[in-house]
Amino acid sequence: MQNFTYWNPVKIVFGKGTISELTALIPIEKKILMIYGGGSIKKNGVYDQVKKVLSNHTFMEFAGIEPNPLYSTCMEAVNVIKKGEIDFLLAVGGGSVLDATKFIAAAAKFEGKNAWDIATGAEFKSALPLGCVMTLPATGSEMNCHAVISNKITKEKYPISNPNIYPKFSILDPETTFSLPKRQVANGIIDTFIHTIEQYITFDVNTPLQDRQAEAILKTLIDETPKIMAEPVDYNARANFFWCSTQALNDLISCGTVSDWTTHMIGHELTALYGLDHGQTLAILQPRVWINKKQEKSDKLVQYARRVFNITDKDKSNAIDLAISKTEDYFQSLGIKTRLSDYNIDAKEAAEMISQRFAKRETKLGENEQVTPKDVKEILLNS
Hints:
Layout: E1 11-14, H1 22-25, E2 31-35, H2 40-43, H3 46-53, E3 58-62, H4 71-84, E4 88-93, H5 95-107, H6 116-119, E5 130-134, E6 146-151, E7 156-161, E8 169-172, H7 182-200, H8 208-230, H9 235-248, H10 262-274, H11 278-292, H12 298-308, H13 316-333, H14 347-361, H15 373-381
Parallel strand pairs: 1-8, 2-3, 2-4, 4-5, 5-8
Antiparallel strand pairs: 6-7
Helix pairs in contact: 4-5, 7-8, 7-9, 7-11, 8-9, 10-11, 11-13, 11-15, 12-13, 14-15
């Protein structure tokens, strides 16, 4: 096991009716900016619940955060903050809303000339405090200090990470997920699944507990998926899904291990260039990443085959191939297509553009930093 430091300051408030606890979570003297997306929280009643609970607080609203939050929209919110003297941000919605809020919190305090520099690696030493009411299990953003932001002009999508953007609290009420469209639920399941995979299927560094924790998340998702998709108001299934999503990316299962993130980084490029849902890109890419790095990942892939899908084939290569096939079948069972051609995307064009981008940036991907632009091109051509 490798050395690690684990610190996570996020207060999780989980369960039915927990939006009512907002009053105690945000000091009354704070001036709040409530940030949300396209209006789904008004349809499912969450908006009214939040407004009622905060009726004695001073707050403003900022709506219109996109599914892949845009830098330009975030900067509009920053202008509102500076004019309104806001000192607390409340994200109400899914992971995109929270990711945007994290970027906004950093940009509002950023001392540099161009806040986009935050996305491309500029350090920042402070951010506005923030909390969230999460309504979509997927990103795990509710319990980490990570976010992803997009730039429409440059067609780029970058992750950011900084301890200053941990939420102070996150309210997770599974009932807020009951009205979600099936496509969003399916994308969320896949995102949670691949978050886990990226921290698990690398190479062995003697972390049996972390491996079992990752496998528990994967097996729970597989077991709960039929119930999650069949019955939107199955509280227990939605609660288990929500907690899996949070646990998949609160950095606990990566303690002392090595992580990959190749699938996510290539996926961000597909979203930036073609507008695909994040979950769709992951479902397309993950099987092809494994095929490309089958030899390097063989030990963990065999372990995955045995422990997650109960594959008993004694031939390790066959077991891996079957596990990859079963994983792709699982994604397809959610109604998510797994080929670029399914989305009318030319694989040759995507392979050329994205591999060139990585080559220009001198990007090193994978747990061994051995996924080259040539590998990226091959992965996409096979997708």
